Amino acid sequence: MTxxxxxxxxxxxxxxxxxxxxxxGMSLDTVGPGAATTSFTVEKHHTxxxxxxxxxxIFTLADSAFAFACNSHNRIAVAQHNTITFxxxxxxxxxxxxxxxxxxxxxxxxxxxxxxxxQDGKLIAEFRGAxxxxxxKHFEE
Length: 141
Known about the structure:
By secondary structure, the protein is an alpha+beta fold. It has one domain (about 5-135): Hotdog Thioesterase (Thiol Ester Dehydrase, Chain A, Roll), CATH 3.10.129. Helix content is about 25%, strand content about 40%. The chain contains 3 helices and 6 strands. The protein has helices at about 5-15, 20-25, 55-70; strands at about 25-30, 35-40, 75-85, 95-105, 110-115, 125-135. A 6-stranded antiparallel β-sheet has the order 1-2-4-5-6-3. The longest helix has 16 residues, at about 55-70. The N and C termini lie close together (about 10 Å). Keywords: Hydrolase. This is Acyl-CoA thioesterase. GO terms for molecular function: acyl-CoA hydrolase activity. Belongs to the thioesterase PaaI family. It holds the Pfam family 4HBT.
């Protein structure tokens, strides 16, 4: 099985159970070894009191891309620590895209960077996630 097939099958197994991301209106756009892209369109119910996308939803978008990237090796990985820096607001109608890439994996620990942009390529947020693998696999190889 190729690394791309392992990543795809791991993502399919996770997506089948990922009710939170689906409820948000998110899509899983791409997945590969140590990489993933998720996106959603900012709707009225995603906006806060400033009439911009609530930061928690932007964090969730980035966190989901992070999760699919660090779980792409058919090893169960969970978040250990995440940080986000908001650079610009997501606005009503924006299509926000989170692009994750794993930058380090050592033993059971990993680091993944996620860039959130809008449909014009404007930077909305930068997210860094630390992952930790635990027992289990997404599917039997």
